[in-house]
Structures are given as C-alpha cells and as structure tokens.
Amino acid sequence: MAALRFAALLLWAALLTLTARKARGASATSSRFATRELSVNMTCKDNNECNAKKHLTCNVSTGRCTCVNGYSPMGPTSCGKKLGDVCDRNCDAQNSRCKLVGDKYICLCEEGLTASTDGTFCYGKPLMFEDVCDHSANCTDVGSRVICKNFACVCEENYVRWHGQCLEKIDRLDVPCNEDTQVCFSESESDSANKKICLNGFCRCVSGFVPHDGMCKKKISLLGAPCNATTHVCHKDDDGANQTLQCHNGICQCKDIFLLEDGKCKKKIDVLGAKCSPGTEICYADSEGKRRQCRDGTCQCKSSFVNENGICKQKISLMGAPCNATADVCYFKEDGNQQKTHCKDGVCQCKAEFALTDKKCQKLKSGNNHAEARFIGRIAWIPLIAVISVMR
Ligand SMILES: *[C@@H]1O[C@H](CO)[C@@H](O)[C@H](O)[C@H]1NC(C)=O
Ligand SMILES: *[C@@H]1O[C@H](CO)[C@@H](O)[C@H](O)[C@H]1NC(C)=O
Ligand SMILES: *[C@@H]1O[C@H](CO)[C@@H](O)[C@H](O)[C@H]1NC(C)=O
Ligand SMILES: *[C@@H]1O[C@H](CO)[C@@H](O)[C@H](O)[C@H]1NC(C)=O
Ligand SMILES: *[C@@H]1O[C@H](CO)[C@@H](O)[C@H](O)[C@H]1NC(C)=O
Ligand SMILES: *[C@@H]1O[C@H](CO)[C@@H](O)[C@H](O)[C@H]1NC(C)=O
Q1: Which of 43, 182, 235, 259 lies in the 20 to 30 Å Cα band around 306?
Q2: Whose CA is nearest to atom 11 of ligand 6?
Q3: Could you tell me which of 132, 162, 117 has the C-alpha nearest to residue 144?
C-alpha cells in the first residue's frame, strides 16, 4: 500500500517537472520565432532559429539555414519542391505538377510550358507586356525594345510603354521631340499620370500644369488658395514672365518683393522719391509698414509722416508724449516743425536751448546763460589756486 502511494507520488512529481519543462521550452521557442525567422543561408546556431514553416533547418556543421532534405531554395526566404525535385503530391514551382516518371514522382512543367533556368516556374511564349519570361529573347513577340526584367516582359532602359509600344523616353522639358518615336515623360512626378506632352515638336507640360524645377506641377491661379509646394505651383497666366505668386505655408501668396493691395500683388518700391505706378506698384518699405504712398508718380511719405534720411517717421505733435527716435519725430507747426523740439529720453520735448513756455518752446534768456558762464568761470579757478598754494 505504502509502495503504491510512493509510486503515485513519484509519478505526480515527474508529471509536474515535465509540464514545467514543456512550458519553458514552448515559451523560449515562440519568443525566438517572434524575433528571428531566418531565411536561406543565414547564420544560425540551433534548429529553432530557421523558419521551419518554409522547410528550413539549421545545418550545424555549416552554421547556416538550409533547406530540409528533398526541398530546394525557392528565392531567398523559403524552400519548396522545385522542378526536378522528387515529390509525393505537391510541387511549389509555378505551373508545375507532380508527375510519374519511370518509378519516381518528379515536379515537371505542365504540358506545353518551358522550365525556367532556376527551376522555380514554368512559362509559355510571352505575347504581351508583363507576361512571364526567363530571357529577353522570349519577349521578341511582344515588341521591339522589350526585355525580360524581373521575370516580366517590359521596355528596356530609357524606353517607356506607350499605346502598346516601347517609345524612347524624354524626361526633360523644352527639348525637341518626335511624337512617333518618342514620348515626353514625367519620371520624377510623384503622381502616376504623365504630365508631359510632345507639342509642336517640343516637350511641354500638359494643360493645367506648369514647368517648375524641370517638373510639371499643377497650376493654381487663385490668390489665397491652398497649395502644396511639392506638387503645385502658384501661377497666373496674366503675370507672364514675372510671376507674382508663390506657394508659401500651404497658401498661394504674393512673392516677397510684392505686397497685397486691392486683391493684387503689387511690386514694392522702397526708395523715397522713386517713380511708381499705382496699378502695379506700391510704395512700401518692409522695415516701416504702411507709411508711404504713390503720389504724383513718385513714392512719398503719407501726410502724417515725414521723410528723414529716407525713412518715413511718424509726426508726434504733443509735448511730453512718448516717442521713439528711430521711428518718430516731434513735430510742432507753431515751433517751426522740428526746429525747437526733439525726441529725447523717449519723450517729445524742447531742445536744450529752449524752454516750454505757454505751450511753446521759447529761447532761454541770454542773461541766464551769461550768469551761468561766469559762475563756472569762477569755480575753475579753485583748483589752480590750490595747486599754487601747495607749490609755495
Ligand atoms: C551563403 O553565404 C555565404 C557567405 O555570405 C556565401 O559565400 C555563399 O555563396 C552563400 N551561399 C548561397 C548558396 O547563397
Ligand atoms: C550540412 O552542410 C554540409 C556541407 O554543405 C553537408 O555536407 C551536410 O550534408 C549538411 N548536413 C545536413 C544535415 O544537411
Ligand atoms: C526563352 O528563351 C530561351 C533562351 O533563348 C529559350 O531557351 C527558351 O526556350 C525560350 N522560352 C520560350 C517559352 O520561348
Ligand atoms: C504635399 O504633397 C506630397 C506629395 O503628394 C505629400 O507627401 C505631402 O504630405 C504634402 N504636404 C502637405 C503639407 O500636405
Ligand atoms: C519682367 O521684369 C523685368 C525686370 O523687372 C522687365 O524688364 C520685364 O519687362 C518684365 N517682363 C514682363 C513680361 O513683364
Ligand atoms: C523704436 O522703433 C524701432 C523701429 O520701429 C523699433 O525697432 C524699436 O524697438 C523701437 N524702440 C523702442 C524703445 O520702442
């Protein structure tokens, strides 16, 4: 009885260990699979690392993932039953079948098809673009300038498929083209549709698109309309060679040398006294803001501003008002405009030789000045007398 109980205990302990080990093994394996599923010819240390689902195993003597016995590499990531491999039911080569040959089952092409050189597919004579091929010679019936690239019949380098033919591709604008043998083609445009066209013997952008950095970009003609500088160009046909718009911050705006006025981009003229034409130009300095106007055909300061060294400064006509010497002038008609006033310490005030009296800047009495001078003259003697006394 005791022996039986002991045996049961032993069995239970053994079961417990086994389950624990299994769980550990499973979790280790799954985590390894999650991080590493190695492909053909990748380096490996043990079997769990190679992708078993794709018939790969680790050849410990070479340290590389190889196809398990009876399977062949089918591209870089997996192994399968290639043409010529012994099979029991399934073949992995495209258009192949497991056929009995003598006393063995072997993967062979379906009736009438040719085996590819690498044994991974079977194919017939290509007749159309994109048909499967193995050699460029197979694509001759598709057309001239057709080659086999990545197992498909396509146009050769620098040629493009155009209405069932391979035509020479021209990807530059404004160069001569021949519509019958060449095609003006937008290689770099992200959009799939071609934006170039052979027009009157030259490569141009199709209607609605304009050339920009050698590319054709969609034309947006409306000031204020949203745009994307990658694919759009803000462009007004009326502007001709001197375009006024640009795509900036996602909106069609006036270029920097223009300023918006009355719904138009007008060219900034920033020299006072320069000629101006109000329909297309605006008198404006970026540093000043709107202080200028075009009057009588020349750029001038507006009436509440005054030209001081080519800058329009604001007239301030209130004694004691705050002012900024770089942007403002203290300007009093009754005091001869700027003759007796100035902007000092941020305040409009009388100049030094004047004093504010009856709301006007009045010249200081000369008597006061003389008294002052005499006083200073007397003080100046003191150090001299002191020096003489010491010398004695
Ligand atoms: C496997 O990789 C090694 C080293 O990169 C290389 O020399 C060898 O040719 C490769 N073998 C195959 C079958 O790709
Ligand atoms: C491992 O690779 C060596 C060298 O290519 C080969 O001789 C051997 O048969 C391979 N072993 C297995 C188990 O595939
Ligand atoms: C494709 O071209 C190769 C090389 O010329 C040739 O051996 C093969 O038979 C051709 N295949 C077909 C289907 O024409
Ligand atoms: C602009 O267009 C490009 C290409 O279509 C796109 O990748 C990009 O996200 C767009 N930019 C904005 C700001 O919408
Ligand atoms: C473009 O601007 C230049 C320089 O300002 C000028 O000489 C030329 O006449 C303008 N062209 C057109 C078409 O307005
Ligand atoms: C004075 O005006 C100039 C130009 O407008 C400005 O750059 C500066 O900051 C102003 N100074 C003061 C003290 O406001």
Answers
A1: 259
A2: 324
A3: 162
